[in-house]
Amino acid sequence: MKSKLLSPENVKKIVCDMHKDYADVREEIKTKAKISGNQLKESMQRLPTFTRK
To answer: Which domain of life is it from (predicted)?
Structure first.
């Protein structure tokens, strides 16, 4: 039984959505890059000590 999910129209739509999402995510990463460094350090410090060796 063939799935209708992978019809040419759907594939085209999925690829377009993926490109759009990728662009959005890239913009988001750019805006968050400055913050995320500090957040990463903070979250590492919040980890229980037994996970850090």
So the answer is: Bacteria
Is 18 among the domain residues?
Answer: yes
Its domain, for residue 25, covers 8-32
- DSSP characters over 20-52: HHHHHHHHHHHHHHHHHHHHHHHHHHHS-GGG-
Q: For 52, phi and psi rounded to 5 degrees?
A: -100, 125
How far apart (Å, rounded) are the C-alpha atoms in residues 33 and 39? Answer: 10
pLDDT tens-digit map of 2-45 = 556 678 888 888 887 887 888 888 788 777 766 666 676 777 77
- Provide the token pair at 53: 């060796």
